[in-house]
Amino acid sequence: MRSYIAFIKKEWIDYLRNYKILIIIIVFAILGIISPLSAKFMPEIIREFMPADISIQLTEPSNIDSWTQFFKNISQMGTIVAIIIFSGMMSHEYEKGTLVNLITKGLSRKTVVAAKYTVVVLIWTISYWICFFIASIYTRYYFPEGKTTGLFLAVFSFYFFGIMLFSIVMLGSISFKNIYGSLLFTAGFTVILFIINMFPKAIKWNPLQLANSNIKILQGILTFYDIKYSFVIMMLISLCALRLSIRIFNEKSL
């Protein structure tokens, strides 16, 4: 346990020194601000740039539009930035050989994997919920009369999807000794999820549902019982990815 905590501190300090934590938090904070702002002012922007001879009916924005922008920005920008930053969590160790001395002195390889993943999840948690709370404050300000049923289920669904995704990033980072291999591995995994989603009977089991059904949850179309199997598969994939990461790392030469 002491070595686990000590390695977590070491990882945390490294992320602080290279400003990666600051970068992720700033990116997510900005996304939290612009999500409700874009929902509020997008109709006005569209009207401003539309040709005078074209008429278009635009509905008044609502809090649902704000949260739609939130999930869109998080999935298309926030998560991608985090994946790019975390994809090098092991490649730098391989290149510099910084783990050789630690492991030869008795540090367990299992501890290395567990500590690195813990720090990644911690940074993801802080950044994600900062983004959510900022978006929530601005959404309540601009759309005070709006009500959202199932908001926390929708938000937690994507949060846990991110946790699973970073277990895949961990597996890719350990399996390949460069950032590009890790990124391609994660991208390949995501593509597989989209392919599975093409089969209607497989949708309820696909963890991708936790990331792309958020608006349906907000609208009351889906409930926890509709996505419960996705949660189960998400947890199984996360555990299997971490277990496989430890196994591969134990056999990997440093």
UniProtKB/TrEMBL annotation:
<feature type="transmembrane region" description="Helical">
    <location>
        <begin position="227"/>
        <end position="246"/>
    </location>
</feature>
<keyword id="KW-1133">Transmembrane helix</keyword>
<feature type="transmembrane region" description="Helical">
    <location>
        <begin position="74"/>
        <end position="92"/>
    </location>
</feature>
<dbReference type="GO" id="GO:0140359">
    <property type="term" value="F:ABC-type transporter activity"/>
</dbReference>
<feature type="transmembrane region" description="Helical">
    <location>
        <begin position="21"/>
        <end position="39"/>
    </location>
</feature>
<keyword id="KW-0812">Transmembrane</keyword>
<dbReference type="GO" id="GO:0005886">
    <property type="term" value="C:plasma membrane"/>
</dbReference>
<feature type="transmembrane region" description="Helical">
    <location>
        <begin position="150"/>
        <end position="172"/>
    </location>
</feature>
<keyword id="KW-0472">Membrane</keyword>
<feature type="transmembrane region" description="Helical">
    <location>
        <begin position="113"/>
        <end position="138"/>
    </location>
</feature>
<feature type="transmembrane region" description="Helical">
    <location>
        <begin position="179"/>
        <end position="199"/>
    </location>
</feature>
<protein>
    <recommendedName>
        <fullName>ABC transporter permease</fullName>
    </recommendedName>
</protein>
<dbReference type="Pfam" id="PF12679">
    <property type="entry name" value="ABC2_membrane_2"/>
</dbReference>
